[in-house]
Write a structure and sequence with these properties.
Number of strands: 11
CATH architecture: Orthogonal Bundle
Helix content: 25-40%
Strand content: 5-15%
Order of helices and strands: EEEEEEHHEEHHEEEHHHHHHHHH
Mean pLDDT: 76
Number of domains: 1
Oligomer: single chain
Number of helices: 13
Length: about 425
């Protein structure tokens, strides 16, 4: 088996209050409490100080008006921004921004605005204040089966939206599933997301992500697919109901070997109250064989909904959608031109798979519907058909005349040249 260097995103941040871990002058990069960014974000406190940048909790303000609810602002370190594209961290940050602004769904954290301020760049996003799944498991222990299924149904909805946008998250884990005050999940952190093309940012033989949630095919072959995210959903499901991730307790090398060669132990050995149907869904999501795993997040979502037996989550989903829409409308009152920022042109500078012979799935999720034909009148359609037939007959007449001219020689074996465009497959 190949030797791997595991680059875990958890290892690139330090606790707030310890900036010296990043260098003696790193504390100078912090915005003080009360600093107003771009005239609309007032810093409340620093949430995280990492090697890439600083994450702030801010109030959304307007002069003469009471502060609106909190938002999160993530700013790239000035030194990294100054180095620009020569620094892989700068490229990775732009990839994160590109991925985040592609997706709009109530179970995914919503980005708000791209920011240029005081020589630094960053972006704002909605604030989700209910902690995350990892904290919930640590505080309350394993969830009851029905609550876990309800949580997973909504998470799989978010994953489906991410995939529909052409993005693979690559680091789904309990820490990256944030919770609202009423425990609705929202997927966050697109720092290592993959969009299928772009510059390689990771050294050969390295893998990026969080090991307990990485798929076997990625560890063994470097294969990056949407089904890798589905494996991570299965690992999250396993942990939600047992309190442990699959293959927990093993060292990194042992865990990699186990993921590639073994099936996780039945979760009922750690939680005997689980139903057979639920365990079957979890183990299908965790299948080592891609053919045995759910093909899409939509299939995974359908399985969770079938476990619930009815559409009791529809109201919860609708409420989440309404809240997201209300937050967006509130933000747009500040005339921040969110729509123009959402279409910000950012090159999707993403990594190539480790194995050059393995490529991500290229199946398009959605193609724009061609509605032109439905809007044409029948007369116009018949006219076009007549012109096509007339043109075809004319072309055959020219070919016949050309073949029979001169001394009677026939031009045999010549290919007939036709317009090949209709037969070309368009890859999106």
């Amino acid at each position: 088996m190949a030797n791997y260097v595991i680059k875990d995103p958890d290892d690139i941040s330090v606790e707030v209050g310890q900036p010296s871990a990043l260098g003696p002058d790193s504390d100078k990069a912090l915005f003080a409490e009360g600093t107003v960014i771009n005239s609309i974000y007032r810093v409340v406190r620093c949430l995280e100080f990492g090697r890439m940048g600083v994450v702030y909790l801010c109030e959304l303000i307007e002069e003469g008006v009471a502060p609106f609810p909190h938002v999160v602002v993530k700013m790239l370190h000035r030194a990294i921004a100054d180095e620009g594209e020569s620094n892989p961290t700068f490229l990775r940050f732009y990839r994160e921004v590109d991925a985040a602004f592609r997706i709009a769904h109530p179970n995914v954290v919503s980005p708000l605005q791209f920011i240029h301020y005081d020589g630094q760049i960053g972006y704002s996003m909605e604030y989700v204040g209910g902690g995350n799944l990892a904290q919930l498991i640590l505080a309350d222990g394993p969830l009851q089966e029905r609550e876990a299924i309800q949580m997973l149904e909504l998470i799989s909805r978010g994953v489906e939206a991410i995939h529909r946008a052409g993005v693979i998250h690559r680091d789904l884990k309990p820490e990256n599933v944030l919770l609202t005050d009423d425990r609705r999940p929202k997927i966050a952190d697109f720092g290592v997301a993959y969009s299928g093309s772009g510059q390689r940012l990771t050294g050969k033989g390295s893998i990026v992500g969080t090991l307990p949630y990485m798929s076997p095919e990625y560890l063994e072959k470097g294969l990056i697919t949407r089904q890798g995210d589905i494996y991570a959903v299965g690992a999250i499901a396993y942990e939600l109901v047992t309190g442990f991730s699959p293959f927990s307790g093993l060292g990194p090398c042992e865990m990699i070997e186990a993921k590639i060669s073994r099936t996780p132990i039945d979760p009922r050995e750690k939680n005997s109250s689980l139903s057979s149907a639920f365990v079957l869904v979890i183990m299908k999501a965790l299948s080592r064989d891609l053919g045995g795993r759910f093909r899409t997040a939509a299939e995974c979502n359908t399985a969770f909904r079938e476990l619930l037996g009815h559409s009791s989550l529809s109201r919860s989903f609708e409420t989440g959608a309404e809240d997201a829409e209300n937050n967006l409308q509130q933000f747009e009152k500040f005339d921040l031109e969110r729509d123009s920022n959402k279409t910000l042109t950012v090159d999707p500078l993403n990594e190539e798979p480790s194995d050059p012979d393995v490529r991500p799935e290229s199946e398009p999720y959605q193609l724009a519907a061609d509605t032109e034909s439905t809007s044409q009148s029948p007369i116009l359609n018949w006219t076009r058909l007549f012109m096509v037939i007339l043109g075809t007959l004319f072309a055959f007449a020219i070919l016949w005349l050309w073949g029979s001219r001169g001394n009677g020689r026939q031009l045999k074996g010549l290919p007939v040249i036709v317009d090949a465009a209709p037969f070309l497959e368009i890859n999106c």
